[in-house]
Specification:
single chain, 10 helices, about 10% strand
Length: about 210
């Protein structure tokens, strides 16, 4: 079995490899430290499963996930992230991921998650499953931030984390004008006027750590 580990921190990749090698004795591992390297490794050889960080240098995590799922629809993808489940799990599952784990819980849940997605299932915890069920066919029950597009949501979280428009533009490889347009849409959709209001909302709803 070929397992590809994509994370920009070598210590995280090493930890994942140690946990998985103990369970999957015959597994062969590959590694990628950024989005560019990830695409290169995917093209070089077939992989049975991809474990990827949601925020790596070189591109937007959700957009990268969607693109990879489009190019390799049969390959299960387990997303590993520093963000809490209630922040990104639902969005990653809708984007095509087979499972979502926080890095905090990975050591305890990784093997179970892998076994489930390799059998063709989806791995989510109970709170995320409940959230998904509540959202089905019930737009009125959704919080304001859940009505944002993936990119708008990403920009919201970055603004709430204290990043300036220029920083956001650089990290997402967008123009300052484009990020400003996203910011304006976010404020309009959420009926707010300032970054301070966005930040307060994000903190109250635990969207930023």
């Amino acid at each position: 079995m070929n397992i590809l580990l994509a994370d920009d921190h070598a210590v995280v990749r090493q930890g994942l490899r140690l946990i998985l090698a103990n369970e999957f004795k015959k597994a062969k591992f590959g590694e990628a430290r950024d989005t560019t390297e990830l695409y290169e490794r995917l093209k070089q050889e077939p992989w049975d499963v991809l474990i990827m960080d949601l925020s790596m240098p070189g591109g937007s995590g959700l957009n990268t996930l969607k693109q990879i799922k489009h190019d390799y629809p049969q390959m299960p993808i387990l997303v590993l992230s520093m963000y809490p489940e209630d922040q990104y799990a639902v969005r990653t599952l809708k984007a095509g991921a087979s499972g979502y784990l926080t890095k905090e819980s990975a050591s305890d849940e990784l093997v179970n998650a892998m076994q489930k997605i390799l059998r063709g299932g989806k791995y989510i915890n109970a709170s995320v499953a409940e959230k998904l069920l509540l959202q089905l066919g019930n737009e009125d029950a959704r919080a304001p931030h859940e009505l944002l597009s993936d990119r708008e949501y990403q920009v919201l979280c970055m603004i709430a984390s204290g990043k300036e428009v220029g920083q956001i533009a650089e990290e997402l490889t967008l123009s300052v004008k484009t990020v400003s347009t996203y910011r304006a849409r976010i404020l309009e959709k959420m009926n707010m006027k300032t970054n301070a209001e966005l930040t307060h909302y994000a903190i109250e709803n635990k969207l930023v750590m």
